[in-house]
Amino acid sequence: MMYIGVDLGGTGIKAGVVTEQGEILSKGSTPTMKERPYQEVIADIASLCRSVVKDAGLTMEDIGAIGVGVPGVCDPRTGVIPMCTNLGWHGVPFVAELRSHIDLPVIVDNDATVAGFAESIAGVSAGTHSSVFVTLGTGVGGGIIINGRPYSGAHGVGSEIGHMILKMDGELCSCGNRGCFERYASATAIIREGRKAVAEHPESMIMKRCGGNPERINAKTVIDCAKEGDPTAKAVFDEYVRGLALGIINLINAIDPEVIVLGGGVSNAGDFLLDALRETMKPYIFFKTLPYARIELARLGADAGIIGAALLGKQ
Ligand SMILES: [Zn+2]
Fold first, then answer.
1. How far is the CA of 180 from the centre of ligand 1 (A)?
2. Neighbours of 283 (CB within 10 A)
3. Residue 300: pLDDT band by 50, 70, 90 thresholds?
4. 178 CA distance to ligand 1 centroid (A)?
5. Residue 252 CA to ligand 1 centre (angstroms)
6. pTM of the model
7. Which residues place a Cβ less than 5 A from the ion ligand 1?
8. 15 and 27 Cβ atoms separated by less than 8 Å
């Protein structure tokens, strides 16, 4: 049996036909154009599903289910997406709408959860029973895999690890709370602190790299300068790693997974990030004499969304 995986993003929709082993047989994409009524977006998803099935030389009879990763949450009991800020959706009856086009089982989950699930089947955490996927991008997303299945909580809204509160009355978050993990562990945090740092240290290498315009600082600028030994950039990076380490320690203490998988733009820093993180975490581990989760980088890249979504349909 094959499965269709759909990766629904704010700018683009990607879909593919995937084998039970997580291999992509065909894939395609189309713009989301999210300003449209949701019915039109979902009609395009259905067309894209038909076209990738045709490209794979298959028919809908060969497909077991359609899995969809969305940048929000979906209530598994009703198939309704209560809120998806990225798409501006509220109370969208996603499953019923997609099934009005294609009569197959439809399973929806959060995009980061789906990517983490993909890694646990065909990526860096393949073969493990428990893992936590952490995406370090504009925000921080998460996917918790327990007993080989994505864990989405009692109400479909679990795995929102970016909004674990790390600091009482800390930095204001886009969710309205203060002190959320993503305020300290996202690319946005590096940029914010990088800008603050160059205001105090205009001699920093960061300032040269951004052409003297702090508005042009991105996470890579700061990380590259830290790698090259710039003290201001290094201080920003070290503080960032501390925030990331504390959030990951909380996850390890609560879940004790086999692997923590890091994805998203900041994870492109590679071993520089991994080495610093592993070292920074050590003093905070609760069970100091017992083994704890390996920290690894995600391996599947941009296809993780399609693969993980498709495999949601495999029971
Ligand atoms: Zn938050």
1. 5
2. 9
3. very high
4. 7
5. 20
6. 0.90
7. 163, 173, 175, 177, 180
8. yes
Residue 260 contacts residue 295 (beta carbons within 8 Å): yes
- Cβ neighbours of residue 159 closer than 8 Å, sequence gap 6 or more: 110, 112, 113, 116, 141, 142, 143, 144, 150, 151, 152, 153
Region 9-28: what's the mean pLDDT?
95
CA of 177 to the centre of ligand 1 (A): 5
CA–CA gap between residue 231 and residue 109 (Å, rounded): 42
What distance in angstroms lies between residue 290's CA and the mean position of ligand 1's atoms?
32
What spacing in Å lies between the alpha carbon of 57 and ligand 1's midpoint? 44
Question: What topology is assigned to 2-110+302-312 in CATH?
Answer: Nucleotidyltransferase; domain 5 (3.30.420)
Question: What are the tokens at 28?
Answer: 């395609």
How do the domains of the chain map onto residue ranges? 2-110+302-312, 131-299
Phi, psi of 80 (to 5 degrees): -100, 135
| CATH number given to 131-299 | 3.30.420.40
Average pLDDT on 149-173 reads 90
Task: State how far the Cα of 210 lies from the Cα of 170, in Å rounded to an integer.
Answer: 28
In the DSSP assignment, the letter for residue 267 is G
CA 6 centroid distance within chain = 15
Tell me, yes or no, if the two domains 2-110+302-312 and 131-299 fold the same way: yes
CA gap 52, 59 in Å, rounded: 10
